[in-house]
Amino acid sequence: MKNTKKLVYISLLIAQAMVLNYVEKLIPFNVGIPGAKLGLANIITLISLNTLSLKSALLIVITRSTLSAAMFGNVSGFIYSLSGALLSFAVMAFLMKTKKLSLMTISIIGAIFHNIGQLSAAAVIIANYKIGIFLPFLVLIAIPTGLFVGTCSKGLLSYLYRTDLYFKEK
Amino acid sequence: MKKKEIIIILLIALIAFIAILITNQKKDYSAEQYVVITIDKEMYKKIPFDVDTYEEIAVHTDLGNNTIIINNGSVDVVDADCPDFVCVNTKPAAQVGDMIVCLPHRLIVEISE
Q1: pLDDT per residue as tens digits for the range A49-102
Q2: Nearest beta carbon to residue A74 from set B1, B19, B83
Q3: pLDDT, tens digit, for every residue of A111-125?
Q4: The domain that contains A37 carries what CATH number?
Q5: What is the pLDDT of residues A140-149, one digit of tens each?
Q6: Domain range for A99
């Protein structure tokens, strides 16, 4: 019974992440810097890292990236976003384990590493390492957006903790 | 958020800001300048570039189309059929080192010596 519940919860999170990806595309946020975005789907990653096991959280990240790319994106965009998503997931999972930082800081650092992962993948694909000059701009954008995403996740989690939707091994 | 965390974040912002200042420094280039267009790792076009250069370049590849205009000492991507429009929204490139990137089309427009 508990397994079914977990399965439904994971599916719901993936669906929500995809909706957030779509909503994000509707919000005009184009500043002429490749890779700059709000990163609303990171709310779901932060929530899954807090309420699910590492394995299930990773499954959510990979599935939502793949499905979003299949529905609203293209192949090269998928490579960039998956590299960013995986790197930022690894860093955020590690920071969450150390339990020293607040969710907002973890979210900001995760956003910065998402940009680093994305730009590195892009640099390899187009074989031009000079696109690194965009990184400082992306870092400056990542701070307010990461703060926003972290605050949203914190608010959501305070409600989720009152439910029994918690599948993390003690 | 603790005080320590806020300091860390402000420090990161400061480093990013300094990096932007360093990369944006205006330099004097007397040497000849070129507009280099690269598509999918291969050089597509190299055009000598100065204030009087006027050229309209329509790039058509399997990956997509971009229209680039060189005019009044700056280079701008004015149109594209990519999904994100980042290249069109990027401010025109005017100095050596400036670049406009269209990641979906693997297109780079940069000014080099």
Answers
A1: 999 999 999 999 999 999 988 887 777 778 888 999 999 999 999 999 998 899
A2: B83
A3: 999 999 999 998 998
A4: 1.10.1760.20
A5: 999 999 999 9
A6: 2-160
Nearest-by-CA chain A residue for B86:
A32
In a domain, A165, yes or no: no
Contact A33 B90 (CB under 8 A): yes
CA distance A106 to A49: 11
> Domain-by-domain residue ranges, chain B?
30-112
Taking the mean position of all CA atoms in its chain, how far away is CA B16? Answer: 19
In the beta sheet, which residues pair with residue B68? B57, B77
A 10 A CB-CB count for B112 gives 17
CATH class in words for B30-112: mainly beta
Mutate to test the interface with A, among B10, B39, B101, B108 (most CBs of A within 10 A): B101
ipTM: 0.83
Report mean pLDDT in 10-residue bins for chain B, 113 residues: 89 93 75 86 86 86 87 88 83 86 87 84
Flag whether A80 is in a domain.
Answer: yes
Number of domains in chain A: 1
The 10 Å Cβ neighbour count of residue B2 is 11
The H or E element that residue B38 is part of is strand B33-39
CB atoms within 10 A of CB A120: 18
Q: How many CB pairs under 8 A join A and B?
A: 85
The 10 Å Cβ neighbour count of residue A149 is 27
Of residues B16, B41, B89, nearest to A127 (C-beta): B41
Q: Is B8 on the interface with A (CB under 8 A)?
A: yes
Residue with tokens 């399965």: A7
